[in-house]
Design brief:
The chain has 420 residues and is α/β, with parallel strands linked by helices. It has 14 helices and 18 strands. It has two domains: 256 residues, Alpha/Beta hydrolase fold, catalytic domain (Rossmann fold, 3-Layer(aba) Sandwich); 86 residues, Immunoglobulin-like. Helices cover 33% and strands 29% of the residues. The strands form four sheets. A nine-stranded mixed beta sheet has the order 1-2-3-7-4-8-9-10-11, with helices on both faces. It has a four-stranded antiparallel beta sheet with strand order 15-14-17-18, covered by helices on one side. Strand 2 and strand 3 form a beta hairpin. Helix 7 packs across helix 11 and helix 8 runs antiparallel to helix 9. The longest helix has 19 residues.
């Protein structure tokens, strides 16, 4: 029986006191690895079994994030921007990890050093503060349950600017996924956020504009290399470290092109932090992929604006893309799935057909979700071995992107389809 999202959460909380806990066909382990003289604490989640598993590392966004990406939705700005989430707590990295493990991938997520060592970080360098993913890669390559030929990096927000820099010159990273990433430099995005939030929520706009100007002026000093030993730190980071940062991240689109890896860009249509126009900027500058997808109805933290849980539309999109690029999982072979299932026509108008070639008699379950993760259709029936055709009628549904999940012969596969 497939566990519902509510049941998975309940199972997790009941077992939280255990070092190793199990949810739907998966296990999670508390792990540590070393990075520039500090111990990084994290969680490694795998499907059930011994592997080796294709493995994903999550490069988190800015700020002192814990491994789960925990965000208490409190305060006046939340009440203004996300009233449907007020007083909720978001844990996007944890939920993303468990969704991907449900689909057969191992996932590593970690506490950022500024979270673990808020007052004892020691000397700050660009590598120390922003590149723990490099040490995470080295760590997972020591594990017997990791397929070292299939290491994938997901960068969320600021992490999207870092993963192509990390992948440059490495031969062990096989794919990159950007979620809510910005092509515009960090300081310009921050300045935009300050003014936009003040304007939207009735704040002190002149003060916000003055702060934005100060930020842009500071980073102009960094970029033009006119800073000196007396230039003060900002956000606790010295000017010399910011100089290394902007040299690495200002050329984010160029870095993606240099890597020339299978790359997926996901924009979130309700994103206030990183506007949807950033996806268009990437599309105009990144030439090594055509996979630029906008997920409707989602805010910066991968959830709808009235539901604290990561959207299944987003996780299904990632899994669909990984399988289409032959980044296989611990479940069943993508080649087997492709040979056994065909959906046509695609795009469709009102009706489409699922063509199956089953190896054995048994149940076929078909679920369809819309692009924001809402269920649109469910059907389950017994089918005999051999070829069969199932008609799916969605004439009452609006146009847009849908995801079709089929489960049969011990295989679960998800396919993307478009209604015109």
């Amino acid at each position: 029986m497939k566990l519902t999202r509510k049941m998975r959460r309940l199972t997790f909380y009941v077992c939280l006191l255990l070092l190793t806990y199990t949810t739907k066909a998966q296990q999670s382990y508390n792990i540590n690895f070393q990075h520039d003289g500090k111990t990084v604490h994290g969680t490694f989640t795998t499907p059930a079994g011994n592997g080796p598993f294709a493995t994903i590392i999550i490069a988190p966004g800015s700020g002192p994030n814990d491994r789960d990406g925990t965000i208490p939705m409190l305060g006046a700005n939340v009440a203004c921007l996300y009233p449907g989430l007020l007083n909720d707590t978001l844990r996007p990295y944890k939920e993303l990890s468990h969704a991907l493990a449900d689909s057969g991938y191992a996932v590593l997520r970690y506490d950022k050093l500024e979270y673990s060592y808020p007052t004892s970080l020691g000397t700050i360098t660009f590598h120390k503060l922003w590149l723990p993913v490099e040490s995470a890669i080295n760590y997972i390559k020591t594990r017997n349950d990791v397929d070292t030929n299939q290491i994938i990096l997901i960068g969320h927000s600021e992490g999207s600017s870092l993963i192509p820099y990390i992948a440059k010159g490495r031969s062990d990273v096989k794919a990159l996924i950007s979620i809510a990433g910005s092509r515009t430099p960090f300081d310009s995005i921050l300045a935009y956020q300050l003014v936009n939030i003040a304007q939207t929520c009735g704040g002190d706009v002149p003060t916000a504009q003055a702060q934005a100007s100060q930020i842009l002026s500071y980073y102009n000093t960094i970029r033009t290399n006119t800073w000196n030993a007396s230039t003060p730190p900002i956000f606790g980071v010295p000017a010399s470290v910011w100089y290394d940062y902007v040299r690495a991240t200002d050329s984010v689109a160029i870095n993606y092109n240099i890597d020339n890896l299978p790359t997926l860009f996901l924009g979130l249509a309700l994103d206030i932090n990183v506007p949807p126009a950033e996806l268009v900027r990437f599309q105009n500058e990144v030439t090594i992929t055509n996979d630029f997808w906008s997920i409707p109805g989602l805010i910066h933290y991968m959830t709808p604006n009235n539901d604290p849980h990561v959207s299944e539309a987003l996780t299904d999109t990632i899994v669909y893309w990984l399988r289409q690029h032959n980044l296989t999982t611990a479940i069943k072979s993508v080649d087997l799935e492709s040979a056994s299932v065909n959906i046509s026509p695609n795009p469709f108008t009102d009706v489409f057909f699922v063509n199956l070639n089953k190896k054995q008699t048994g149940n076929v379950a078909i679920r369809v979700w819309n692009s924001v993760g809402q269920p649109a259709y469910f059907r389950q029936e017994m089918k005999t071995a051999g070829k069969s055709i199932i008609q799916i009628d969605l004439k009452e549904m609006p146009t847009g992107i849908y995801f079709v999940e089929l489960s049969f012969d011990g295989v679960t596969t998800t396919k993307r389809i478009v209604k015109q």
